[in-house]
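Example 3.
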Amino acid sequence: MMKKWIKKIVMVAGGLFVGFANGFFGGGGGMLCVPLLDKALSEQTKVAHATAMLIILPISIASAITYVASGYFDLKLTLIVGGGVIVGGIVGAMLLKKLNSGVVAIIFAVLMVAAGVKLALL
Amino acid sequence: MIVVYILVGIAGGIIGGMGMGGGTLLIPLLTIFCDVPQHIAQSINLIAFVPMSVVAIIIHAKNKLIKGEYFWWIALPATAVGVLASLVIRNVDGEALSKYFGFFLIALGVYQLVSAIIRIRKKSKNKKEKVK
C-alpha cells in the first residue's frame, strides 16, 4: 500500500501534468489521466476511465472559457463538428461492447503516430 | 464541406465514446483534412467534450464507477494549470503549436500501441493456459 503522503504527491503532480497538457493541447488529458489512475494509483481500469472523465470535465470547461475569451472560437464550426461528436459518441459507446477493442486501439494508435509525424516533422 | 466537418466530428466522437481519447483524433482530423487553424481546432475539441462527458459521467456515477476523492487532489491543481496553459498558447503561433501537438500525438500513440500489444499478448496467454 502506498504511503498517504506519497499518494498525495503523485495525485497533485499527475494533476499538474494532465492539466497542463489538456490546456495547452486542447485535449489528450484523458489519455494521460487513465494511466495515472490505473498504473500509478492502482485503480481498476473501469474506475480509472470513468473517474478520468470527471477530472477532465472541469479542466475542459475552464480551458474552453479561456480559449473563447482569447478569441479562439468559431460558433458555426463548433456546432457542426460538436453535433457530429455527440452522434459519434453514442455510436462509439454502443460499439464498445461489440468490437474487439484491442484491434481498434492498435489501428487508432497507428493513426495517431501517422498524424503526429505529419504535423511534427513534415 | 459541411458534410466533411460532420463526418470528422462523428469519427472523433466514436473514438471518444469508446474511451480512447477522441480529441486526440478530432484535432488532427480538423487541421489536416479541413484546414482548421490549430487554436480553433483545440477550442472546438474542448467545447465538444463537455456535453458528451456530462452524459457519460452521469451514467458512470449511477454504476458507481467514479471515485470522488481524486476530484480534489487531481482535478483542482489540474484545472488551475490548465487555465494557465490555455493562456500560454496566446503567445504560441499556430504553426509551432501544431508541431508541438504532433510530438504529443507521437508520444501518446507509441504509448497506446505498446500498451495495446501488451494487453493482447496477455489475453492470448490466458486463453492458451485455459486450453491446457
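The radius of gyration of chain A is 17 Å. Chain A touches chain B through 89 residues (CB under 8 Å).
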